[in-house]
Write a structure and sequence with these properties.
Elements: E1 6-10, E2 31-32, E3 35-36, H1 37-47, E4 52-57, H2 62-67, H3 72-80, H4 84-95, E5 98-103, H5 110-115, H6 118-121, E6 126-129, E7 133-136, H7 141-151, E8 156-161, E9 171-177, E10 182-190, E11 201-209, H8 213-219, H9 230-238, E12 244-247, E13 251-254, H10 258-271, H11 276-292
Parallel strand pairs: 1-4, 1-6, 4-5, 8-12
Antiparallel strand pairs: 2-3, 6-11, 7-13, 8-11, 9-10, 10-12
Helix pairs in contact: 3-4, 8-9, 10-11
């Protein structure tokens, strides 16, 4: 079995759901507590054993490259000042994997973005992590999937249950149950209406994909929203080879929208080893004040 060592992180979208915050700052660089959102995806990939990461950017997203590059001047300043904790933090993003970048010239959808990784991937299975999906879990979501992959090698998508009225916002699978949280994918439908959805198991932004996906992407045309949809190519791939869905353990936050972004900051703030207790005290104080004035 081929070891998965490469990951692709698409980060070329406009970020319209986060406007006006994302007008001048890429949505992937908006901070969740003390780190930009995309760093959580990079750290998850590294924790799963990934050694080579390709980040697919777009226009006006050069600060993503700067963030994952070494800043020798800043490191020297922190070293001279004896700020060892801060020095370790700024070195971390660039220190544990080889990170590469390429630019998506046109915004044609997630499938098109993955196509930009063809040369990087070669003929190896690879992981895809969407930085809009921050997954808080004791064992990182991609690591959970890698462990399953050892037993059931093949293309795999992460899924979670959603309310029926929310299926229209996701790619939805038709599941054939193998275990309590592993399924064979019988079919995939991109953003179906609630009455046409084959289940309420929605695909979220973690994938392990066979390299044959690129052949499928070459054949699919524009799908939902007029874009090249990765789900459509996965559907084609599932018709040729067995594909799995893994219902992960953890909490997923859609940090690509404002409500999910705020929720993630609250949860990750409460979990933070340094700031968590103070965040909890301030939150309780705010809630107590709102209760007293009858706002809740």
């Amino acid at each position: 079995m081929v070891k998965i060592r490469k990951a692709v992180i698409p980060a070329g979208g406009w970020g319209t759901r986060c406007l006006p915050a994302s007008k001048a700052v890429p949505k992937e660089m908006l901070t969740i507590v003390d780190k930009p959102a995309i760093q959580y995806a990079v750290e998850e990939a590294i924790a799963a054993g990934i050694t080579d990461i390709l980040i697919i950017t777009g226009r006006n997203k050069g600060c993503i490259e700067d963030h994952f590059d070494r800043n020798v001047e800043l490191e020297t300043f922190l070293d001279i000042k004896g700020k060892e904790g801060a020095l370790e933090k700024v070195r971390l993003p660039a220190g544990f994997a080889s990170i590469y970048f390429t630019r998506q010239q046109e915004q044609k959808g997630l499938g098109h973005a993955v196509c930009c990784a063809r040369e990087f991937v070669g003929r190896e299975p690879f992981a895809v992590l969407l930085p809009d999906d921050l997954i808080e879990a004791e064992i990182p979501c991609l690591k959970q999937m890698m462990d399953v992959y050892q037993r059931r090698p093949g293309t795999m998508v992460a899924v979670m249950e959603v309310a029926r009225d929310e299926v229209k916002n996701y790619g939805i699978i038709k599941p054939v149950r193998l275990t309590s949280n592993i399924f064979v994918v019988g079919d995939l439908v991109e953003k179906p209406s609630p009455v046409r959805a084959p289940s309420n198991l929605a695909i979220v932004g973690r994938y392990i994909i066979a390299p044959e996906i690129f052949d499928c992407l070459d054949l699919v045309g524009p799908g939902a929203g007029g874009e090249i949809q990765l789900t459509d190519a996965l559907k084609m791939l599932a018709e040729k080879d067995e594909m799995y869905a893994y219902k992960f353990y953890g909490t997923r936050f859609d940090v690509g929208n404002i409500a999910g972004f705020i929720s993630a900051n609250i949860q990750m703030g409460l979990n933070h080893p340094e700031y968590g207790k103070e965040v909890e005290r301030k939150m309780l104080s705010i809630l107590d004040s709102r209760l007293k004035v009858g706002s809740l």
